[in-house]
Amino acid sequence: MNGFRWDRQWLVVNSKGRAYTQRVEPKLALVEVELPKDAFIEGWEPTKSSYLAVRAPGMDDLNVCLGKQCAKADGVSVWEWSGFVLDEGDETSKWFSTYLGIPSRLVRFNAGFISTIFAQLDEKHKLQGVTLGLLFKK
Predict the structure, then answer these.
(1) What is the dihedral of CA 109, 110, 115, 117, to 10 degrees?
(2) CA nearest to 134, candidates 1, 4, 6, 5
(3) Is the N or C terminus of the chain more exposed, i.e. has fewer CB atoms within 10 Å?
(4) Does residue 122 carry a pLDDT above 90?
(5) Rounded to an integer, what distance in angstroms lies between the CA atom of residue 39 and that of residue 18?
(6) What pLDDT score does 136 carry?
(7) Which pTM does this prediction carry?
(8) Which pLDDT does position 132 carry in this prediction?
(9) CA-closest candidate to residue 95, choices 84, 87, 105, 81
């Protein structure tokens, strides 16, 4: 997988830990996310004041801290892969659940683990370029 550091790091899952796609939840296509400008500089590390800004029609903006420790969540699955991810917390869960109208959670892959997961999935499902519902704005 070739992409910038934050490529395909987050996904939205249902109450059973199964990943949503825009095909299943079309409203995800309207979600916009924005990283700090410095996040695209090689070697940049987030701090506790670095946020992923999440926006969607009819919703207040959501700021997800990039520098916090996240709790592990087990039992998450994307296609045939399943394993643990990092849960972005109850505030993000409430935001996505409200927006989608169904119980949802925002989770993040461990940064060192992403390329392994998506290389396997890309090989089987040809998912190249898929961001699992979240579009980045530079």
Answers:
(1) -60
(2) 6
(3) C
(4) no
(5) 28
(6) 43
(7) 0.74
(8) 41
(9) 105
Neighbour tally for 91: CB within 10 Å: 13
The two three-digit tokens of residue 5, written as one number: 């550091």
43-47 CB contacts, 8 Å cutoff, 24+ apart: none
Show the tokens assigned to 112: 């060192």
95-101: Cβ within 8 A, 24+ apart: 95/54, 95/59, 95/62, 96/12, 98/59, 99/27, 99/31, 99/56, 99/58, 99/59, 100/12, 100/20, 100/25, 100/27, 100/28
